[in-house]
Amino acid sequence: MPNDEDGMVLGYKGVQGDYWSQTGNADTIVVQGKTNERHQILNEVGATIEVARRCVDDNKNNHCSFGLHVGSYDYANEWAGSDGKLLVVKFDPSDAVSVPTDCDFQKLRVSKYEVVADITDTRTELFKPVYEANKPIYGSSDDDLDEDDECFGDCGNCDCHDEDDSDMETIAIRNYIENKHDVGEEPSLKQIQSRMKGYDLSCGEIYDIVESLGYDFVGDDDTPRSQYRVAQ
């Protein structure tokens, strides 16, 4: 799971289409957050959800048990299903209680988290290991760019563009390239295309997006376009 500048961990959560949690527990003491008659918790963007720590199972060998659950992208996306909402949440590592041994360790139980973004429309995984605190996270509307920051279509608060699918494609491609560069790799256009599941982009379209972001390419006239690499 990636983290932000302040050391908060970013994870995913799948909830119902109306933002209520998939399940509820009458024995859970909710310290912060709105609940309904079925003891489900409302997970609207901006909400902070907290339960009493003793209401989170600290036994990793208890698989389906009580507590607030945060998961990997794949785990949470499966929980959301086609009709639910896929959310990005952040939590303090000190609020992590246990990592159950089932589901290939793709989930953990925490006592508190904040809902920071709804990524249902894009279903785009966070690629960068660290996200800056003053930058938005895939559709989070309450974060502003600094005046000197260049807008790549992801600020969500300026008048220079309308946020649409092309903006999210640009964000995802930029994040993937930066993540690869951080580990000393220069990804090819084919690698980027393979990573952009659900966008149906050609290598030519990806080339245009990468070029618009100001990156240079490694390749010549004898190199197939798909094998062009994005230079550091």
Mean pLDDT: 83
Low-confidence regions: 140-164
Number of helices: 4
Query: What is the H/E order?
Result: EEEEEHEEEEEHHHEE
Give the N-to-C terminal Cα separation: 24 Å
Q: Percent helix among the residues?
A: 10-25%
- The beta-strand count equals 12
Total individual domains: 2
Note the beta-strand portion: 15-25%
The radius of gyration computed from the alpha-carbon positions, rounded to a whole number of angstroms, is 19 Å
Taking the sheet with the most strands, its summary is:
5 strands, antiparallel
The 3D shape can be described as: elongated
Structural class: alpha+beta
Quaternary structure: single chain
Strand order of the largest sheet: 2-6-9-4-3
Walk me through this protein's architecture.
- This protein has 232 residues and is α+β, with helices and mostly antiparallel strands.
- It has 2 domains: 3-118, no CATH class; 155-230, Arc Repressor Mutant, subunit A.
- The chain contains 4 helices and 12 strands.
- The strands form 4 sheets. Strands 2-6-9-4-3 form a 5-stranded antiparallel beta sheet.
